[in-house]
Design goal:
Elements: E1 2-6, E2 16-21, H1 24-29, E3 40-43, E4 58-63, E5 69-75, E6 89-94, H2 97-101, E7 109-113
Parallel strand pairs: 2-3
Antiparallel strand pairs: 1-2, 1-7, 3-6, 4-5, 4-6
Amino acid sequence: MTTFTTNSPEGTSEPVPLEVAATARARRRGLLGRSGIEGALLLTPANSVHTLGMRFAIDVAYLDRSSRVLAVRTMRPGRLGLPRPRARQVLEAEAGSMERWGVRRGARITVRQA
């Protein structure tokens, strides 16, 4: 099982379940067709996302090459996100999750394989 944590003092110290979409097919599918997600989805490499055809609002965190959060946005279904030139990965989760986990601008994400 893959998990992630943040270095944010406001964040949870509990590891968050993480799915990794590292293939082009997995990145294209993303969260489409799902009614929710337990934990988060990491799209790698990626610098933008869309919510066309999604059933629920999501939080999106754009990460740079060192897994530092560049920005966090909440996107409603049916939206196109602008590309972030410095972003190398995108972390997606149900709306409201990122704040609970302490994922905010400047935080560093640490991914662990179990």
